[in-house]
Amino acid sequence: MEKNLKIINACDTNCPVKKSLDILSGKWTMMILYQINTRTIRYGELKRAVVGISEKMLIQELNSLVERKLVSKKAYPEIPPRVEYKLTELGVKTLPIIDQIAAFGLENLV
Amino acid sequence: MEKNLKIINACDTNCPVKKSLDILSGKWTMMILYQINTRTIRYGELKRAVVGISEKMLIQELNSLVERKLVSKKAYPEIPPRVEYKLTELGVKTLPIIDQIAAFGLENLV
DNA sequence: TTAGGTACTTACTAAATGGTTAGAAATATT
DNA sequence: AATATTTCTAACCATTTAGTAAGTACCTAA
User: Fold this and answer.
1) Range of the domain at B78
2) Chain A, 49-108: which CBs lie within 7 Å of strand C?
3) Per the database record, which ranges form the HTH hxlR-type domain (chains A, B) (predicted)?
């Protein structure tokens, strides 16, 4: 028995919680995933749904989410422009997390 | 039908996701909850378990978690000091969230 | 010709967060 | 007498993140 066997699941670089948070942290990230959810949604709708977010932050988050493969983006070559976002297969897998977070808020935070 | 009936669960101040994140966001918060989990743990153990955290951040987070009623603290009047932390009833209710986050990391992030 | 709609971009500023270092307190051990 | 132990505090600085405000592009309708 080594003395450090006590720490079985220490949070180092391999910690699954840390890895998930690398992707999911950020003031707006989970709220955006929550709003996209199972639907296809346009940029403007999302902007109205995520009350208080600035255009800069919304675009920045969306680009980042697309880069991280949680969200996919489809732009139609129209004027005025039309861009649709939806969750990827990987993004859909975050929904159980979001559901738990929403449930916790509903049940415990007034 | 009003035109804004479309936005049924908009993320404004009453959004349960937003409310939960107010409490749970922060670089170290969920990792600390993950490490405390169902056990009673001393400050020093926690420091070793959450690899990379500074003493300042750990104490700051713990104080904040105690204030938010997610963690309870018991200090023994001994020298050298001994302080134990564990999750409150409310804190335990965050574990399903943490479990989902850990599962997501394990299954999807290398 | 002017205004409106949609999806962005850019430059700048402000605020929140995190890190480093040093130290304090009280006792036991060397 | 000096050192170690354990938990925690304070001052200061650096970095990261978020917010503000303005502008761009292109076409349509008034």
Assistant:
1) 16-108
2) 55-56, 59, 62-63, 73, 75, 79-83
3) 15-110
